[in-house]
Amino acid sequence: MIEELETVVLTSDIPEYGLQAGDLGAVVLVHGSGRAYEVEFVTLSGETVALITVRADQIRRIQEGEIAHVRMVQV
Predict the structure, then answer these.
(1) What is the C-alpha separation between 15 and 49, in angstroms, rounded?
(2) CA-to-CA distance for 71 and 1, rounded, in angstroms?
(3) pLDDT-based confidence at 5, cuts 50/70/90?
(4) 16: three-class secondary structure by DSSP
(5) pTM tops 0.85, yes or no
(6) C-alpha dihedral over 61, 73, 50, 24, to 10 degrees?
(7) Is residue 15 classed as helix, strand or coil in its secondary structure?
(8) What is the pLDDT of residue 75?
(9) How confident is the model over 29-63, as pLDDT tens digits?
(10) DSSP assignment string, 19-74
(11) Fewer CB within 10 A of the end CB, N or C, for the chain?
C-alpha cells in the first residue's frame, strides 16, 4: 500500500484540474486502507495546483530508473 507523504505518479489525465498522466504528487491522506488517496500536486516553486482525492488505480509508486519532466501549468 502507498503510504502518507510518499511521492506518486498520476496514471491518467484529470483535465478538470489541469493534471496529466505522469504528473508527480504527494500523498497527504490514505482513505479506506488504500482504496483512495488525497494527493497534492504542486509546481516546482511550491504553489498548489490541486489537492484532490484519487482512486488507487489513478496513481502508482515511482519506479527505479524514471526521470522527472517539466511542463507549464495554469495556477
Answers:
(1) 12
(2) 29
(3) very high
(4) helix
(5) yes
(6) 10
(7) helix
(8) 84
(9) 999 999 999 999 999 999 999 999 999 999 999 99
(10) B-TT-EEEEEEEEGGGTEEEEEEE-TTS-EEEEEEEEGGGEEE--TT---------
(11) N
**Which option is the CATH number for 7-61: 3.40.1800, 2.50.20, 1.10.40, 2.30.30?**
2.30.30
Quick one: cell of 64?
A: 527505479
Structural contact between residues 8 and 61, judged by C-beta atoms closer than 8 angstroms: yes
Cell 491518467 sits at which residue? 12
Residue among 63, 62, 1 nearest 29 (CA): 1
Nearest to 1 by CA among 66, 56, 64, 63: 56
Distance, CA of 52 to CA of 59 (rounded, Å): 12
